[in-house]
Amino acid sequence: MATCLRYPGKVVIVTGGTKGIGLAIVREFVHQGANVVFCSRATGAEKGQEVQRELQGSGCPGDAFYQVCDVRNESDIKRLIRVTVERYGCLDCLVNNAGTGYTEQIDDVSAQDFLNLIKTNTVSGLLASKYALPYLWETKGNIITIGNIVGVLGKENGNTVENSRRGSSVLSPPQGKGSASSPLFSKKSNPPSFDGP
Ligand SMILES: NC(=O)c1ccc[n+]([C@@H]2O[C@H](COP(=O)([O-])OP(=O)(O)OC[C@H]3O[C@@H](n4cnc5c(N)ncnc54)[C@H](OP(=O)(O)O)[C@@H]3O)[C@@H](O)[C@H]2O)c1
């Protein structure tokens, strides 16, 4: 029986792909035939290598390759993209997923804490998109940014993390806008809150 893969041979980067939503995205792309480079901070390297081994040994049609990359560091992001293109020859899709939670309310948060949060949840996506773009133009590829529905709708007692994800909306044009005349499709996904794997 002929198999019909959705992403055969496509090259994808998923930031923060060792847990939760990012890991689910990595698995799905690899099962659908894509070659995926995914990352976490160095503290998650063991888990990342475990996921790489599992997917490479699973007989899936795609490939998975783990890299340490702290998305708060511009040089790490540049290296992630360079390694991906050196290994697979091009880039078709960037998924800006890496993010972190923070439960302090506005009256407890320091400016430095909030700046750190913005760096992880917002600036990282800007930089990854910036350095991926030259390759994405070549393939007419995609950028997917994982946002947060609370950042769009608001929430009573919403906390600082939700505000930081709201900032990521500057990275992607609203659906249906900005993409009509562009070969590059940029989309923001705003999942609701849940506990991931
Ligand atoms: N879960 C929800 O309810 C929910 C709802 C809406 C939106 N979101 C958004 O969806 C995204 C994923 O959420 P999740 O719940 O799946 O999170 P998660 O389970 O905590 O996983 C986050 C991933 O990002 C990585 N990461 C964190 N900081 C990083 C950094 N500085 N550099 C590189 N990698 C980093 C983590 O690995 P290490 O920690 O090992 O580095 C991990 O792989 C986030 O952007 C979040 O804001 C989540």
From TrEMBL:
Residues 160-197 are annotated as: Disordered. It holds the Pfam family adh_short. It comes from the Eukaryota. InterPro entries: NAD(P)-bd_dom_sf, SDR_fam. This is 17-beta-hydroxysteroid dehydrogenase 14-like.
